[in-house]
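Section: Multi-chain targets

For targets with more than one molecule, the full set of components is provided together so that the structure can be written out for the assembly as a whole rather than chain by chain. Components appear in the order listed by the source. The example entry contains four components.
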Amino acid sequence: MKLRMGMVGGGEGSFIGTVHRMAAELDGTIQLVAGAFSSDEKRSIRSGTEMYGLVPNRCYNNYKEMLLRESQLPADQRIDFVTVVTPNHLHHPVAVLALESGFHVVCDKPATFTLPEALDLKVRIDQAERIFALTHNYTGYPMIREARHLVQIGALGKLRRINVEYIQGWLADRLEVLGNKQAEWRTDPSRSGTAGCIGDIGTHAFQLAEFTTNQKVEWLSSDLSTFVPARRLDDDGNILLRFEGGPKGVLCASQIAVGVENNLSIRLYGELGGVEWSQLEPNSLVVRWNDRPFEVRRTGGPGVHEPAVEATRLPAGHPEGFLEAFAVLYKNFARAVRQCASGTAIGNCEQDFPTIEDGIRGMAFIEAAVASSQQNSKWTKLTTE
Amino acid sequence: MKLRMGMVGGGEGSFIGTVHRMAAELDGTIQLVAGAFSSDEKRSIRSGTEMYGLVPNRCYNNYKEMLLRESQLPADQRIDFVTVVTPNHLHHPVAVLALESGFHVVCDKPATFTLPEALDLKVRIDQAERIFALTHNYTGYPMIREARHLVQIGALGKLRRINVEYIQGWLADRLEVLGNKQAEWRTDPSRSGTAGCIGDIGTHAFQLAEFTTNQKVEWLSSDLSTFVPARRLDDDGNILLRFEGGPKGVLCASQIAVGVENNLSIRLYGELGGVEWSQLEPNSLVVRWNDRPFEVRRTGGPGVHEPAVEATRLPAGHPEGFLEAFAVLYKNFARAVRQCASGTAIGNCEQDFPTIEDGIRGMAFIEAAVASSQQNSKWTKLTTE
Amino acid sequence: MKLRMGMVGGGEGSFIGTVHRMAAELDGTIQLVAGAFSSDEKRSIRSGTEMYGLVPNRCYNNYKEMLLRESQLPADQRIDFVTVVTPNHLHHPVAVLALESGFHVVCDKPATFTLPEALDLKVRIDQAERIFALTHNYTGYPMIREARHLVQIGALGKLRRINVEYIQGWLADRLEVLGNKQAEWRTDPSRSGTAGCIGDIGTHAFQLAEFTTNQKVEWLSSDLSTFVPARRLDDDGNILLRFEGGPKGVLCASQIAVGVENNLSIRLYGELGGVEWSQLEPNSLVVRWNDRPFEVRRTGGPGVHEPAVEATRLPAGHPEGFLEAFAVLYKNFARAVRQCASGTAIGNCEQDFPTIEDGIRGMAFIEAAVASSQQNSKWTKLTTE
Amino acid sequence: MKLRMGMVGGGEGSFIGTVHRMAAELDGTIQLVAGAFSSDEKRSIRSGTEMYGLVPNRCYNNYKEMLLRESQLPADQRIDFVTVVTPNHLHHPVAVLALESGFHVVCDKPATFTLPEALDLKVRIDQAERIFALTHNYTGYPMIREARHLVQIGALGKLRRINVEYIQGWLADRLEVLGNKQAEWRTDPSRSGTAGCIGDIGTHAFQLAEFTTNQKVEWLSSDLSTFVPARRLDDDGNILLRFEGGPKGVLCASQIAVGVENNLSIRLYGELGGVEWSQLEPNSLVVRWNDRPFEVRRTGGPGVHEPAVEATRLPAGHPEGFLEAFAVLYKNFARAVRQCASGTAIGNCEQDFPTIEDGIRGMAFIEAAVASSQQNSKWTKLTTE
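Its structure, encoded as tokens over all components, is:
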């Protein structure tokens, strides 16, 4: 039987709600059956029925109602988990109530509104003994998993230089006053938090760097900017990084790089080899060596390792994209939920997806980046305490 | 309510069955509920329950049983349409019985085993007044639709040169004797028909050329080859093309181009402009002009036209791939089925997907290509009568 | 001491004369000292002094005068060789007189106006015991030499499929009536010969295919077109190829592929591996295998073989281009001339550049391509007799 | 008549001497006639005669002797200018003596060993009234000139973000102790100065950023590293930049990015548009806009502006590379020298190449980068006083 999913947020005008629905259902193990898509009742029902094909009585006015009423349904009908795709300031209350109601949780990044909230959320997750996945979806790409594997087996040698970027141009103009809902909440401190660009996409870059290298950023020196006049949060930033154990790097994030679509890229150089990847052509991984020609590993192609193969659905040459990568997280989440459901201790479930640990790191990154920038790029320790 | 889909073929070891399931369900309008996945009863049930999460009583021993028993289910339970993903020789009998049983049909390409079968199938479709879609899935890519639109509005001027290729390398060795089921039936004349490579992938290239240009190939001169010793069907071919109205071109198809994944590409050059596209990077369309720099149009990006936008789900920079393109056909098919169900005359349903007409053209192409090659590349008229 | 070069043709309005001058002088072993740049006396002098910085008394009215008067100069002043860059119909008379005057010859392609002329020229070269180089300049690219080497050592296995293209768009409009001198003579049968596009650039593609594979085209089936109204020679063509020993291929040449700059590309697929190269990014060679990721060999990079290294001047990452490749032919030509001058028997001089043999093959190719096209693409044997 | 060039440095084992010779002579306006190629007499003569084809009596034991004896030659024989290609610590003394001897000077970058030397050199140049060119050769690429032009005409709007990188991998291992002469002096503080990587290639990136944007870096925050054990100078660095007037950026330089050849790249994003360029494919310039598809401008192609056209020799599609870009500087230098020789006041000569001003900026950059890094990335003002 498929796992049943309930969504909070993701109503009309949302892009990410549909993404979660498609990603969750792609591998045939999950089905969206309920949701509180909007705080406006009519809108929630309209979203549920028209966008998601749900029956009206599973479309709720708000998340509290949804969690309460779903809890009261028979076990073979009620949702198994809740996906949280609201603006950032609601992540913590929704997730906490979902956990307390006994549901597993999938939550969009950044995990919470503040670092203390993220730390608190971790406590709640542990107490609830539920599965919690954070959708740093770019980790689902097979070639990211290949890159990470190459680091893990030492193929690249000790890492030295790390360049990670997340560059967009869609906020080069002041869309937030032109009726663009995506722009509105992302540039509103009361819904986004203390950071704009660096929280919205810088966290993805940061998490990707730590995920791929399996190493932690220890110090950072940040220069955040707000280029668009009257914007209230940063829309661009450059951050020097020092990782534990010696590697150094740079993280660039921007939403004002006019004309650039969505270029998350990462390059790692070690003593023996290097890898280069860009989300815009996600099925290729350039692997460089000093003593032989560079090679290009491909999703589904020869020579890639098991972690990449596991995240692949199609033969080489059949491009897999953003949704497929996203779906890898849901596929692995579903496996963990089933293990949990069949009695496996929570600590023994395979949690092959970003978790609240990534969320805490991400919030600590945001706080350190903002603090450093406010102190004229002072080197700031990234601490999660 | 979602449309209910029944599948014939696509059992264990099949790649394409899962592809159809994922593509059909992606947009939330279709759900696979039944299937005759294998002629082996246990295998069919195992496939249905394990690969597709179906309940056992909707997994049938064979397509005849499925069509009969599904017909007897209440209207709100039985399947709405049948997807045919068997080897080629079964397309005609399955499709015909499905139509006669009152179901709409989605069929894998090539449409049938022979041209007469395809012509016959068209008659049956017309008689049955059902929707029939042929999954030339590559037509679903947004940038293919942009290319076609540029031709249609005359932006490229009168076309002159057309290069279309479908190049693979996976059959460079004799996999058909090494237990590879995909290779087995594709190289077996009793299941594939008179052509190997040219039928399996050459038809995709042919259809893409006619689809994108909206012009018909009138004459061809073909040189087919079998490079792998003891193989029974062609595994490579080069074909000169002459289109109605003057354009000329070349079609190259190969399954022995060692190391090449799945490179379907098309280039069109008219009097005023040109376009170039490759399935390996499907979200870009190069558009060339003589008097200004070439531009690259992108899925979801600025400047693309409505037919491309309609086939796009995500903002620019979120790569869409093979499954998303495939799903466009199902999405459009579902719309036509709903229109039909709500009483629209069959001729007025929007059939924005390849149909039996494409299937007939494809079969005529195969027959002409084989005939020409057998006559030392004699120019052969492509006729559908 | 540098070799002294005299040029015939290449006056004002010529592009190729300057190219030859730059290429010849690049490696410091040759210097242009004389020329008959135009049949118009004033123009010849003006070209020589202004374009090439020569002293007026080495700028001649015509090639006969140049060859005569240079012959009479002291041995340490007179030219060592003649470069022929006239329209095609003058190649033979100029080259023959140069040889008879005792000079070595560098000649632009195609070698002559007709096949009989090319055969005759070979006799003259043999008689004169002079060095003759034909500037199929694209053979000078290091990555072409790497590709050829990979074929020669059997790394790709027995070849099966060969795709070669030379695609341009600059003649998409009827420039020949708009005062473009390059277009004028290239579309004029009295100066170009029986073929337009296929002679001008098709020969480059043909020669590159034979050079790289070290195999000969035996049969061809050709479909040449003239798309621009009132043009007198072909401006586009597609040719099926059958090589001695079994490989098959396609040659596409076009000058009406609007917006395409100068895309000479070649792809070779054998039983074990494949290579792909395009002149537009000439410093990369894609090398494909069935069992491991594809690699990209680079000019000056690790893993490339001696023949490529010899043709390279700069470390990897310092792009070498068209002129550098061209200069490789002159560098090798200069070496052969010096060997000859120092008494090495002509047959023992290292002639690592295209010669009259390539010229004869090229003329035979043109004649066969035109003949086949005139006979509705009849398979035509490529014969040099 | 060609200008006569004398070289200091560039003997056996040198890569850059030959580069200068080829670049200087490419356009037919300059000829190398003399040199002091090595402080070892025999080696200097051997280099001059074998590498450069000079007569022995123009090969000198050292630069002082060359400058003295060349000064004494008749005006129509002696050199017109001196090219300085020694290790960095000799730039100042050689250039100064050359100027005092009445010669124009071409000097490799960085201009001098220290900032005070560079400031002093400027005074000497002004006093001598000679032309001085600094070979920041990458500014010679046509597409760099196109990018700069787009900035100048305001096509990109006010600039916001600038990313510039110069990434190599050749020093990932400790080559300086393995007999690699290039590595030896570059990692030796007594010959290179206070900086390694950041002086050797970081200065190129810095100059390219200022050249292309026509804006000055005002502040920087630098994190330099030495990754290879026991190396005496930095081999990697990341630098935050703040430009006068508001733009921000990042400069990354590395010589330990294993497997990367020579990737100098620059990206500029303004309010209206952006440009992206990489030296590894130097003939393309990506130009991005928010409201229409991105375009790719090409060397020699349609739509590019006069400054790019002036730096181009060949039609589009005939790749120009490193040497051709380098030669643009020499071509422009030769023009200025001729203007000067024909009596134009030094201030009125067209000096379309980097000059001592760039040299001073470069030395100031190096000093600020080193100082900032030593003070834990303190924001440091880039001052040239």
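Residues 322-341 of chain A form the longest helix (20 residues).
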